[in-house]
Structure prediction request, 542 residues.
Amino acid sequence: MSHKVIVPIGPYHPLQEEPEFFQLYVEGEKVVDIDIIIGYNHRGIEKLSESKHFDQVAFLVERICGICSSSHPYAYVLAVEEILGGEARIVPERALYIRTIVNELERIHSHLLWLGLAGHFIGYNTVWMWAWRYREPILDCFEMITGNRQSYAMFKVGGIRRDIKEEDIPILKKTLDELIPAVDMFKGAVMDDPVIQARLKGIGILTKKQAIDWCVVGPTARASGINIDVRKDDPYGVYGRVDWNVIIEKEGDIFAKTVVRILELYESIHIIRQSLDKMPKGEIDANVKDVPPGEGIGRVEAPRGECFHYIRSDGTNRPIRHKIRAPSYMNVASNKVAAVGGTISDATITLAAVDPCYCCTERVAVINKPDNKQIMNGWDLIKLSQEKTKKLQELYNAGPQ
Amino acid sequence: MQIRDKIQEKLASKIIDWKEPAERRVYFTIKKEDVFEVAEFLFKELGLRLATASGVDTPLGLEILYHFSFDKTGEFYSVRVLIEDKKHPQIDSITPITAGAEWIEREIWEMLGVNFKNHPNLKRLLLADDWPKENYPLRRE
Prediction:
């Protein structure tokens, strides 16, 4: 008779950076069922957004996720601009190009981040170190263009906040040129390595049918043979005007997900190069003053898939409803089928293969809890800490140094 | 035949209101009793993808927008349903049609208190276990 054992992974996950809790039900080594418990990262952003005016919300949604800190504000401004008549109609040309460039730089740094983490998860730390080493110049480019390595504060309704300076463009181009041989190296190191193939092929499979049923998006869907990419299907920015391909693999296993992400790096570099060459001079902001009543939807292909924002406005300066759905929300849930049937040792990389982002998944709402818990600010905590230290000093009878 | 014509033809008796405020964006309203049938038609027969669902508390009742995406053309169909009874809001679950709806409905259930009939696993997703019962964060009362 089989005997089911629960193996808990989390909430302090031994490898991933964010708190999440997987309960694996195993029979021997085999995973037969999985419970995904989330909610540890939940901060109340949808509710908070209703109390901010339209200009502030862009900064707020940027803080949903440190990795997708251009995709969320981009999807948000697209939603508001839809109420105003559409991005293509109101946003100046140059701003469209800059939006596209920033969005693609984000994809490059995010895919390199995942590649490094995936390498780390399967014990291939060389890939980890090298991927992050080549991610660093991209973050430097972000710092050069936007002033920040993360949370770029570039997007605003009707345009962008900062222009790309002419003298920065050659540096940006040079960084991209130097990245190509690095991506070639990763392509070789991952796609031609028999050890990686043995480790990643045929595990964590999400079939095309399952992918459709679980409504997954982004590289997770494309690795299962589904041809979806918001940049092609519902173009925004200048994606409709530059030449690039959607990368699709059929196998649905982790190797396919890795290949999709690596090959997408080439496409992103290609898109940025073309955008830099075609970018006209001119205004970068349409100076939008008021947002009329209405509702709008913004969709952006974030590194992990379709990032969705829905805005409803009643004509005041604040949204009355702001719904956010990050790509991981759909992708993480599909682990329920991808991880089942594999072994425990494969579960670690399978659960990471969708490039999960829990702070995205768990944005929603929080109100004051009607109990007696005290709310403390920074000074209260310092005071508490000093009192505790004092008590400990008394207890151990040691005076302050 | 375009997808929007197919929807208008098949669901002619069910559509109360049809709006196209922007390019590739369609919003249409149906009765809450029809939600299962409509979702089944959109998802299974037409092959639309469920992007998500937004729950909104309005003065008239609780509104749910089911956002379906047709990725071949980039069209985006939002199906609007109004649940007038705010005391005991109830609607059919569409999780039996697509597994992707499971988390979406759990979130609307805990945030707005809408009871999804026939949902296989209606429990909390994001709120803490000790969160007070029948206290719905996204309600406006």
